[in-house]
């Protein structure tokens, strides 16, 4: 892969599902009521390579997190899981290299 040489300080993690963010109380609905959440297949956490500077202090690696249960929820067999993991990884790699959602839709 031609981009392999340009990937530095990157960890790839797999978690079951994204952690739910707590909704502030008093902003509609009853306490304890849950809205259906949308599925998140993966996320990039860090500073895109295009925005890094040699002067930046980096406390740890950038991270891709793949969410296993959400990926499995949109797939019906092992072949689809493998395909979706690859697609999600490539999508997050685009973020690593500084692409936004609009640019990734064109790819």
Explain how this protein is built.
By secondary structure, the chain is α+β, with helices and mostly antiparallel strands. The chain has a single domain (4-105), classed as Zincin-like. The protein is 28% helix and 15% strand. A 3-stranded mixed β-sheet has the order 1-3-2. Mean pLDDT is 82; it is low at 24-35.
Quickly describe the structure:
With 107 residues, the chain is of the alpha+beta class. 28% of the residues lie in helices and 15% in strands.
Task: Summarize the helices and strands and which ones pair or pack.
Elements: E1 10-15, E2 42-45, E3 62-67, H1 68-73, H2 78-96, H3 101-105
Parallel strand pairs: 1-3
Antiparallel strand pairs: 2-3
CATH class: Alpha Beta
Radius of gyration: 17 Å
CATH architecture: 2-Layer Sandwich
Major β-sheet strand ordering: 1-3-2
Mean pLDDT: 82
Low-confidence stretches: 24-35
| Beta-strand residue fraction | 5-15%
Order of helices and strands: EEEHHH
Shape field: globular
Terminal CA distance reads: 17 Å
Contiguous helical run count: 3
Overall number of domains:
1
- Major β-sheet, in short? 3 strands, mixed
- Determine the fraction of residues in helical runs and give it as a percent range: 25-40%
- Helix and strand composition category: alpha+beta
How many E strands? 3
CATH topology: Zincin-like
Please supply descriptive tags for the structure shown above.
107 residues, alpha+beta, Zincin-like, three-stranded mixed beta sheet, 3 helices, 3 strands, 28% helix, 15% strand, globular
């Amino acid at each position: 892969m031609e981009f392999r040489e340009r990937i530095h300080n990157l960890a790839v993690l797999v978690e079951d599902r994204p952690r739910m963010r707590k909704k502030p109380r008093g902003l509609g609905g009853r306490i304890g009521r849950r809205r259906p959440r949308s599925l998140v297949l993966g996320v990039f956490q860090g500073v895109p390579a295009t925005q890094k500077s040699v002067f930046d202090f980096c406390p740890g690696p950038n991270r891709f997190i793949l969410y296993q249960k959400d990926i499995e929820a949109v797939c019906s067999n092992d072949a689809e899981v493998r395909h979706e993991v690859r697609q999600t990884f490539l999508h997050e790699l685009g973020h690593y290299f500084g692409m936004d959602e609009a640019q990734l839709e064109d790819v």
